[in-house]
Design brief:
single chain, about 110 residues, mainly beta, 8-stranded antiparallel barrel, 8 strands, about 0% helix, about 60% strand
Length: about 110
Amino acid sequence: MAKKLNGIIKYNIIDEGCLIGIFTNTHIEQIYPEMAKKIINSEGLAGKYNCEYLAPDKMHDCKLHIKGDKKNEKIFRFKWFDGSSVKPFNEGIGMKIDDKTIIVSYWEV
């Protein structure tokens, strides 16, 4: 049986519409870059993003949806989608550490 993917991402919030991150997971066991740019510029971190990441030696495009938690303004839910797929390939939960940093734990769905 294949090992289920689990990983972690550290994003730097560059501005309201751009995230630059580094990630690793149980499949690649190295550190790789990721960048996400908000599709529709809106206030706050929540929204839909175009995303690119390198893993292991090839660029991948995807969509990233971030949703805020109604009970805690520092907690966010993440979902990554391939192309026009309606089912995410990864989901995660993140905590905003400060105004410029969010740490996300994610898993394969």
